[in-house]
């Protein structure tokens, strides 16, 4: 999906979503953090923007960057919202899966050499 | 000897003649004296009359002088003051005997001349001040919009919390400055400075709150039945008006108290109702506000007071120009209630939520279930303990009462006789998450699937596999022709 081409000036600024906060309560979140909604009834104390996030995650997991794109909000602001939701137990956040890569052959050889030298 | 009698005779005759002459003279003198006396009396009378007239004249002169002095010292200052403050009385003549005289007329003419000159000069000076301000605000406003654009771009660019925090703070400050400048410009007769696209009323109101310090105290309750939107040309004027009314409400109530905003849809229009629980307004303040909101005359900057209170004045200007209505009244809660009424005919429209999604910060409408958006909204709108009356097919697997809120979700057991291998069990804390399908699963997985898991005939299995293959092929074909999913693809059924 592509972000909506905003033909006009924004009417609602991003800081309204978090009440001006941009420092998330946990700094483990990343653009690629995968968010999974917890199957939990949405009560009335959930604010509209959190509501939208939960709604968005109901069918399945999304990364934080995807959520931000859906909501047309800056990633920094979405991080704050997501951190709040994770704190409230309404969301699970999982660190991105590191890219699979082969082990560095040189390091392995050096480890092997070291082990051999220990043995002898 | 004859001479003696003769002489005597002569003497006697001479004496007689003398006596006669003297007598005649005496009579004449007497006459003249009487004449003189009469003239003297007349002269005296005349002179006393003149004196009297003189006194009267000088008294009159003194009175006139006093009247002129009174004009200079009392009446003209009164007049100038009264022109600025209409409730100040202007004193009349000092001496009522002048009433209707030429002096009175002359003095009145002076007053009229002075009054006209002052009024004209004031209008001229005010117009000059307004045009200066208008020019300045227009330029500043354009610059602030540029600042806003770059701040917004930077917010999307930088993820670092420190930088993001500074950017959000700067954005908020900029927004406040923009509001001030814009309202001042509008008071001075400038246009709002921005034409937006058609915007949802809920979005507009939330946007208006964001321009004010203390916006977190504003509680917006959305009672609109339809996705009501304001037409493009009226968006910014109504946003300015709502902002100024909200600013009043926030300013005049304690910082712990909320300000409630209700969006209400009527038969022929929509209303934004702003209630505060603050100190309220006096009757004359309310009267003044309503005058500013309803008057058709041009506005003078001098009417705004010092420090200038431009809120109602700006709203009044916009009300005149764009045809919506603002009413202010004492609130039943003790504060002030301000109502912005937007007539539906020229100023409202309804937008398609699919084509033009509403901002995520806008309050959720309290609507009956039906649309795709309402599914999740329904339980939240219900009071705690009551379950949703008619949960649509795509909602949560089982409608659970809201009171039964568990931190760790429990597998919904009822309505599923056979224990399935938990394909749609939500991940429990610690368990690895599984990628699930985008569409709500309950829609495609009726109860038949888990029940018949082990009871399938070979033919049935074959047909299922064929269906899978067909589905895959048609899916691949579709993937080439159209984008994978719409922006709202997740929530749609």
UniProtKB/TrEMBL annotation, chain A:
Instruction: Give one Pfam family.
Output: DUF742
Give the matching PANTHER family: DUF742 DOMAIN-CONTAINING PROTEIN
Q: Which organism is it from?
A: Streptomyces noursei
* Entry protein name: Uncharacterized protein
By its UniProt entry, which InterPro entries does this protein fall under? DUF742
From TrEMBL, chain B:
Annotated ranges, domain Histidine kinase/HSP90-like ATPase: 240-343
**Enzyme nomenclature, EC number:** 2.7.13.3
Compositionally biased tracts (Low complexity): 379-410
List the Gene3D superfamilies.
Histidine kinase-like ATPase, C-terminal domain
The membrane spanning regions, by residue number, are: none
Q: Is Phosphoprotein a UniProt keyword of this protein?
A: yes
Q: What biological-process GO terms show up in the record?
A: phosphorelay signal transduction system
- One Gene Ontology cellular component: plasma membrane
Q: Where does the record place the region Disordered?
A: 361-493
Q: Which UniProt keywords apply?
A: Coiled coil, Kinase, Phosphoprotein, Transferase
Q: Which reaction does it catalyse?
A: ATP + protein L-histidine = ADP + protein N-phospho-L-histidine
Q: Name one GO molecular function term.
A: protein histidine kinase activity
Q: Coiled-coil intervals in this record?
A: 26-74
Q: Which Pfam families match?
A: HATPase_c
Question: Which PANTHER family does the entry link to?
Answer: SENSOR HISTIDINE KINASE TRCS, SENSOR HISTIDINE KINASE YKOH
Protein's name according to its UniProt entry: histidine kinase
């Amino acid at each position: 999906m592509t972000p909506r081409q905003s033909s006009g000036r924004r009417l609602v600024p991003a800081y309204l979503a978090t009440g001006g906060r941009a420092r998330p309560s946990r700094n483990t979140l990343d653009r690629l953090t995968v968010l999974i909604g917890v199957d939990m009834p949405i009560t009335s104390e959930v604010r509209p923007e959190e509501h939208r996030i939960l709604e968005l995650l109901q069918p399945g997991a999304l990364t934080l960057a995807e959520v931000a794109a859906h909501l047309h909000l800056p990633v920094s602001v979405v991080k704050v919202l997501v951190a709040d939701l994770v704190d409230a137990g309404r969301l699970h956040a999982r660190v991105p899966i590191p890219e699979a890569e082969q082990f560095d052959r040189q390091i392995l050889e050096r480890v092997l050499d070291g082990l051999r030298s220990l043995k002898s | 000897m004859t001479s003696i009698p003769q002489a005597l005779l002569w003497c006697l005759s001479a004496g007689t003649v003398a006596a006669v002459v003297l007598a005649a003279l005496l009579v004449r003198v007497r006459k003249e004296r009487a004449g003189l006396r009469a003239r003297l009396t007349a002269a005296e009378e005349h002179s006393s009359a003149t004196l009297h007239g003189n006194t009267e004249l000088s008294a009159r002169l003194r009175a006139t002088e006093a009247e002129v002095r009174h004009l200079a010292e009392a009446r003209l200052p009164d007049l100038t003051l009264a022109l600025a403050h209409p409730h100040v009385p202007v004193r009349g003549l000092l001496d009522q005997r002048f009433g209707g005289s030429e002096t009175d007329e002359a003095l009145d003419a002076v007053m009229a001349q002075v009054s006209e000159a002052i009024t004209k000069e004031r209008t001229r000076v005010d117009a000059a001040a307004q045009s200066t301000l208008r020019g300045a605000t227009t330029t500043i406003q354009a610059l602030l919009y540029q600042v806003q654009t770059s701040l917004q771009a930077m917010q999307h660019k930088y993820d670092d919390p420190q930088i993001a925090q500074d950017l959000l703070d700067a954005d908020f400050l900029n927004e406040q400055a923009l509001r001030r400048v814009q309202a001042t410009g509008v008071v001075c007769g400038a246009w709002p400075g921005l034409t937006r696209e058609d915007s949802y009323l809920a979005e507009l109101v939330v946007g208006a709150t964001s321009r004010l310090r203390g916006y977190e105290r504003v509680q917006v309750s959305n009672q609109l039945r339809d996705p009501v939107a304001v037409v493009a040309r009226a968006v910014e004027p109504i946003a300015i008006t709502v902002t100024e009314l909200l600013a009043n409400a926030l300013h005049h109530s304690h910082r712990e108290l909320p300000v409630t905003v209700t969006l209400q849809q009527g038969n022929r229009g929509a209303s934004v109702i702003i209630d505060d629980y603050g100190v309220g307004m006096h009757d004359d303040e309310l009267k003044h506000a309503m005058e500013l909101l309803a008057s058709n005359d041009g506005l003078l900057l001098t009417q705004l007071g010092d420090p200038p209170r431009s809120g109602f004045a700006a709203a009044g200007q916009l009300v005149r120009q764009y045809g919506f209505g603002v009413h202010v009244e004492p609130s039943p809660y003790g504060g002030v209630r301000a109502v912005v009424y937007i007539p539906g005919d020229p100023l409202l429209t309804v937008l398609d939520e699919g084509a033009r999604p509403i901002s995520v910060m806008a309050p959720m409408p309290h609507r009956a279930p039906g649309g795709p958006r309402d599914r999740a909204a329904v339980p939240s709108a219900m009071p705690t303990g009551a379950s949703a009356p008619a949960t649509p097919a795509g909602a949560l697997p089982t409608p659970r009462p809201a009171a039964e809120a568990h931190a760790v979700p429990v597998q919904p057991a009822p309505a599923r006789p056979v224990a399935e291998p938990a394909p749609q069990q939500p991940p429990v804390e610690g368990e690895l998450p599984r990628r699930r399908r985008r569409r709500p699963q309950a829609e495609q997985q009726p109860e038949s699937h888990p029940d018949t898991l082990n009871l399938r005939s070979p033919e049935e299995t074959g047909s299922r596999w064929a269906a899978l293959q067909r589905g895959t092929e048609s899916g691949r074909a579709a993937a080439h022709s159209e984008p994978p999913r719409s922006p709202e693809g997740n929530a749609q059924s």
